[in-house]
Amino acid sequence: MNAGYSIRWAAEHGLPRLGFLALRGVGDPFARLLSGDEGYDDPYSLIDQLRGAGGVQLTPFGYAAFDYELCREILRDRRFGVRVPIDPAVPLLLRRYAERVVLPPNPIEAPSMFAQDPPEHGRLRKSVASAFTPRAVSRLGDQVREVIAELLDAMAARGSADLIADFAAQVPIALIAEMMGFPAADRPLFQRWGYAVAPLLDVGVSWQTHRHAMAATAAMKDYLAAHIEKLRREPGDDIFSLLVSTSDQTDDELLSSASLLLGAGFINTTNLIGNAVPLLLSHAGQLDLLRLEPERWPLAIEELLRFDPPIQMTVRRVLEPVEFDGGVPLEPGKSVLVSLAGANRDPVKFPDPTRFDVTRPNAGDHLSFGTGIHGCLGAYLARLEALHALPALFERFPDIRLDGEPTRRPLSTLHGYAHMPARLKSR
Ligand code: HEM
After folding, report:
1. N or C: which end of the chain has fewer CB within 10 A?
2. pLDDT, tens digit, for every residue of 49-80?
3. Which CATH architecture has domain 3-65+76-423?
4. Inter-CA distances, 40 with 56, 184, 348, 399, 414, Å
5. Mutation test of ligand 1: which of 268, 272, 366 has the most ligand atoms closer than 8 Å to its C-beta?
6. What is the pLDDT of residue 280?
């Protein structure tokens, strides 16, 4: 393992982790929300405590915003960027050294568009955006239906399933792998890498988790580099072939873009579908309404996204001095946590926000796909997949029952289940 990785871990995770553990020990709600050990199961009561008086707050780990309008404004304001600095509390020498360590191309580090400010961001996003427009995505409808029908048949034959591994994860991984021209046999690899890299969006992860993520990014890099070489020789009609042959992206940019599309295209949609199942089963009246009036599903998907968002938070860097009404002045160079889950539960925007209501008229205003220049590129694709997967699951297995408590993945940023055993009785 590259020695530089341990320096990066120490600066980005190791020292903040010590801070979390100390503050969590005295019950600090922010440390509890971010530590991933507690905040993942029911982050919402912690968020309500943290929302407090509103406005941007100064926390031991930077600024934080939980109100809808503030979060929306920060995400749309060019005075905030996405290249988030290592915490200034980390000793300068360690910070400087850590900033020079280059990790293998991965979804969340530059040159990934996710971590690039304009103008680089616009160039990278433009080269893939045409594959994700509503029109391009709507052409995938038949493919989505086919994938789902095969998965449901396989689950029906067994009579029981882990709804995450056997269904929620399989739908998006099949779609994104197909869109990008990867062989079906390699899908388990993408899942393994995706789950290994996911914790890197949190702060304060353990050395073991970080090492595992680095090993996955290195393996992913080798695999994707070989795939790019192959597509240069024999291009297919997938979006990645198009990207390799027509865009002006460097090899490192291509590797980051591919890993971002694979990662973002899989885990978040898995979590949307997975989070929806227990929520709908525990609101039987609302599920009955959707069965009777299936035209309500699109709004129901928005309410599912609002109520239990797959990405709970994101981070921005203050680029210029900013002062919002009623909050602390924001100093350049510091980071701001933007709580998407907090925005979605803001009572000013969503009356009675803790009520799950598939008929909520403004559910679609949620911030679960972010907003502004980094707003989710795959939002139409994710919606299309959920819109086919969920009605088909409940239609095929009207008596579906969870078999015990589903277990959450212990992450703070990406919010979803690891396992969800279920008993199925098909029509
Ligand atoms: C329910 C599923 C999904 C959710 C909740 C979700 C959520 C988000 C959010 C919140 C952001 C913005 C992050 C920020 O501003 O810091 C984002 C960005 C992004 N998402 Fe998604 N996403 C989902 C599915 C997908 C899919 C299926 C794809 C592609 C196949 C995708 C590709 C991307 C990309 C490329 C970005 C970065 C855009 C940029 O930086 O310009 N996402 N997503």
Report:
1. C
2. 999 877 898 888 889 999 999 999 999 999 99
3. Orthogonal Bundle (1.10)
4. 22, 32, 24, 29, 9
5. 268
6. 98
